[in-house]
Amino acid sequence: MSVEAPTSMSADITTRIEVAHRESGMPTPLVGMLLFIASEVMFFGGLFAAYFNARAGFVGEWGPPSPAPELEILPIALPLTVILLTSSLTMQLGVWAIRRGDQGAMRFWTAITLLLGISFVAGQLYDYSTLGFGISDGVFGTVFYTLTGFHGAHVFGGTVGLTILLARATQGQFSARNHVAVEAISIYWHFVDVVWIALFTTLYFLR
Amino acid sequence: MATTTLEPRAETYSRSWVIDWLTTVDHKKIGVLYIVNSFLFFFAAGILALVIRSELAVPGLQFLDEPTYNQAFTMHGTIMIFLFIVPVLSGFANYVVPLQLGAPDMAFPRINALSFWLLPLGGLLIFSGYLFGGAAAEGWTGYAPLSNGVYAGGVGTDLWLIGLTLVGTASILGAVNIIATVFKMRAPGMTLMRMPIFCWTVLVTAVLILLATPVLAAGLIALFIDRNYGGSFFDATAGGHPILWQHIFWFFGHPEVYIVILPAMGVVSEILPVFSRRPLFGYRAFVFATIAIGLLSFSVWAHHMFTTGVVFLPFFAFMTALIAVPTGVKMFNWMATLWRGSISLTTPMLFALGFVTMFLFGGITGVMLSAPAVDFHLQDTYFVVGHLHYVFFGGSVFGVFAATYFWFPKMTGRRLNERLGKVHFWIHFIGFNLAMFPMHPLGISGMPRRIADYSPDAGWTLWNLVSTAGAFMIAISILPFLINVIATFINGERVGDDPWEANTLEWATSSPPPPYNFDKLPPIRSERPVFDLRHKHDLEHLSPEERP
């Protein structure tokens, strides 16, 4: 696992105290990211609970309110899923590249991941425009747009993180020893992917 | 080697103190900001409490109309819980935990500053409802459908939702910081089972915040969507469920009770050993009891919902009563710590003993309410209001004052005046009981909570009058406290680094501590490193075989 390299402020007491508290085990930023993701799990847990609560107590046929058509995995939802799953793979290729110290490959895979992420958000917005129902069309519309919307917002947040990663990588800020930000963003990106898998399964198959 | 020396000493540079405090990432300054900010909100919410009690003193509407009264109790509860008790304890955690762990700062100092600055922003948003046609008025629990767009049409409830979401975000970020600090920043030798109890309680609290608050955030956002974008999460006419709000709110709300009480228990567990000159009885049992309370707190939320008829009563009643077991363990720890101790009744000790007795009372009424048969009778009566005030105020707030008197010398180098402190304690203690005890008989005789008026024939007038007198007594008790804080800050008795002869690492550095906390750390071989350091020569006349 990576370790933050000591800064150049060798006369600064904080550096010396950090040496006294020498890091072992998981780097602190990764601990922070994992804890943050734990809170995100509970956040989505609350929204999923709302979904299943509405689903369980619903009288009538569960799904988009008529006259809107049924939800279909083609032509949009399944390709979007493939795009997001692929982006997790490319993200991980970027992480493996920087662990080897290959800055060029890391930049390449991060850029591909970013493009896939933007495609997902754009595709989802297009999907919204074709569905034929809105957030105020009954409880299904409310839970559908809230869950997919918050997931989409998290993908968007991930693309912001990836953009920052790419900018920093372009300046050569990451190396085999020092790339904890890449590891942290990648964990977040995989988490957002996992949420989508749960969401996709719930919305399109469990109905 | 006796000490770990950290050289060279830091050089400091000067800048405007305003800029310094606005931009600080030092956990101690942020801790002080938390505490000062929280006390300001405490005074604001306290004035609302006086307004409520004045209205209830005698039958009839004297000062407020009903909508204004609804806003007053909603703001009182919201501000007291979300912007006073939780943040003030976070403030002490911020200040004390890195010191007790022998760390130079929190794990993420800049996120720490962000967590703080979201609080005044969120608090002002919640209060700003008063400027835009009325603040939120459906109680601090915000039950649907009272809080939907039909019954709470004003913008006040939206501001309440946005403000609470910000405050919740601040709590979550703070919890991430605390947990990372505990696991990554402890000094060499500070193992988990040598951590001061306060750090343990703050750690478990942070886990509860981390896992419970996001659920509330989901609920707040769902309600916001219902109100503003035509959603129907809680709208029964469109397939939603109003009861869902109660599930979400209390899935957060009951861990919240322990978020509020656990750090105060930690404070008391630091103070009782110091002023009875004994180690805390049963350190390990206390740690496991704290963890047990944290775990159980996620399985009891529906005891707030017994009367809804949609929850499985035996399960939630049993789990709720079960929490009394680890809590009883702690009571036993505290009493056994005091037993045959050399007790000195300083002001922090008085407040700590006040905590133990008042929290015991609130805990017992809690067990009473855990029985569905009793709860069905007492649901939404003043008995519940009395119970929660004994826990929140008699428990947590007494803990907050104990912490203030205990750590003030560390924060400023000056000890609060003991005579004024005792005047504060006794007026506060008597006033508290006068204000809150009458709520129990009132509740048993049927007085509902959240009413602005009652019939003169109901027989509730005397107890209400006593309660109002007690509320004003609490307010009066704050005066010697404020005078004490200001006078001591300006010209108090300087008492050195370790005035209480205490046990934990914060007393091993100067008062106030330098920006980086420690020049050197004593060796850490128990949960009382400063006690060990003070008494390291006590056993030297014994041969190594004779030592314990």
Structure description:
The complex is a heterodimer of chains A (207) and B (548). Chain A is mainly α. Chain A has helices at 13-20, 28-56, 73-100, 103-131, 138-170, 180-204. Chain A is elongated. With 548 residues, chain B is an all-alpha fold. Chain B has a single domain (29-534), classed as Cytochrome c oxidase-like, subunit I domain (Cytochrome C Oxidase, Chain A, Up-down Bundle), CATH 1.20.210. Chain B has helices spanning 17-23, 27-56, 66-101, 109-127, 155-184, 197-228, 242-276, 283-296, 313-338, 347-370, 372-378, 382-412, 418-436, 439-444, 461-491, 529-534, and strands at 4-5, 414-415, 493-494, 520-521. Chain B has a two-stranded antiparallel sheet. A two-stranded antiparallel sheet of chain B has the order 2-3. In chain B, helix 3 packs antiparallel against helix 4 and helix 4 runs antiparallel to helix 5 (155-184). The longest helix of chain B is centred in the N-terminal third of the chain and has 36 residues, at 66-101. The mean pLDDT of chain B is 94.
Number of E strands of chain B: 4
Q: Got a strand count of chain A? A: 0
Secondary-structure element sequence of chain B?
A: EHHHHHHHHHHHHEHHHEEH
- Report how far the terminal alpha carbons of chain B are from each other: 21 Å
Fourth CATH level, the homologous superfamily of chain A: Cytochrome c oxidase, subunit III, four-helix bundle
The number of helical elements of chain A comes to: 6
Distance between the termini of chain A: 42 Å
The pair of chains with the biggest contact is: A-B, 41 and 54 residues
Number of domains of chain B: 1
